[in-house]
Amino acid sequence: MTFPENGRSADEILSELDARSSQDVQWRDGKTAVYIFNAGEDISALKKQAYTAFIEENGLGPLAFPSLRQMEEDVIAMALDILHGGEGATGKMTSGGTDSITMAMKTARDYARAEKGVSGPLNIVLPYSAHLAFDKAAHLMDIEVRRIPVEEGAFTADVTAMADACDAHTIMVVGSAPNFPYGIIDPIEALSEMCEAKDLWLHVDACVGGFLAPFVRMNGAEIPPFDFEVPGVHSMSADLHKYGYCAKGASTVLFRSEALYQYMPFDFDNWSGTQMVTPTLAGTRPGGAISAAWAVMNHLGIAGYCEKQALVTKARAQIEAGLRQLGFEILGEPKLGLMAFHHPDFHAYALWGKMAEKGWFTSLTKDPPSLHLMLSPKHAEVANVYLADLEKSMTEITPDTEHVKARYS
Ligand SMILES: *Cc1c(COP(=O)(O)O)cnc(C)c1O
């Protein structure tokens, strides 16, 4: 496209946007189980209105926009409230999980250098299943990534092997709550004990579970301690734009204390402009991401989240039961809204293709090759459709036992 000489009317532009979106996955029907968190039309409408109310305002300027400063403080306080942030716990909103993880790593690095005299090459130790955002941040900061294979069968962090991988140059140890590939929570208490014994910074990546697990627990499920309730947890990442059902561009990075957080903000003044103190890498920060998060959290409240998250776990339980009947094996014991599964006789990727033909857009897990679902409240309505389509897909591809066995062995 060339830059248009003359513009077009707003009406024409808006209808073209509409037309363009028709080529995308039709996620509103519930057949998308990745990228989108569908909590219903009412939540969608509220977040749009609340976002547009502050679409021009800038979170970079807390003095100019005390409204945004206060809303961000409220959002962080609410997050800490459900994640057992004790006295002195603090944090900031970021643009997403990758941003939160990057800032947590930067903070842990500066803390290690300043408080523990760590110097020279640095590393982080994490389970193989932890998110690739850690690799991005490590790449930026020239930090070595030590990924340790997960426990066979359980798909959880191997704490002993992780302990062996730590040394005097380790600035952070990571556990996920849950990890993305399997949807399983790592043994955070065991990681915490190991980190406390070695005086290491433990980060819990609750990007996808931070606003899901607390409510699933309130609904009665047994969720092991994974947040600041566990004493060795120094920092956490928890995304609002996932199971918080907030507008995209909203996450939280949280710290046990101000003494840890103090290493996060940037404070520079060596230029001809004025001094800049910014909590994250961003300069300009979208006001709408803050106001939309504040609005959705206050609209749903604990009761509203419990209701939405009950639909997520209901969908997961229904799909799990159906999958077992169809002969699938579920990887480990997922307790939240994500799961991965494979079939002894059918290759997962071939099934994925057949499901895609039926309008399903989902993720995959590579080790071992598996289908993957990240479920939303909406999926409680279509769980049976998914299972029926999967059963049909199994009749449309040739069982490929030898091939599959070879791949899994
Ligand atoms: C989504 C996710 C991230 C990254 O978050 P983005 O918002 O996509 O940058 C990190 N960790 C886990 C476990 C995630 O699921």
Automatic annotation (TrEMBL):
The keyword Thylakoid does not apply. Keywords: Lyase, Pyridoxal phosphate. InterPro entries: GrpII_AminoAcid_Decarb, PyrdxlP-dep_de-COase, PyrdxlP-dep_Trfase, PyrdxlP-dep_Trfase_major, PyrdxlP-dep_Trfase_small. Its cofactor is pyridoxal 5'-phosphate. It holds the Pfam family Pyridoxal_deC. The keyword Lyase applies. Belongs to the group II decarboxylase family. Sphingosine-1-phosphate lyase subfamily. This is Pyridoxal phosphate-dependent decarboxylase family protein. The lineage of its organism: Bacteria, Pseudomonadati, Pseudomonadota, Alphaproteobacteria, Hyphomonadales.
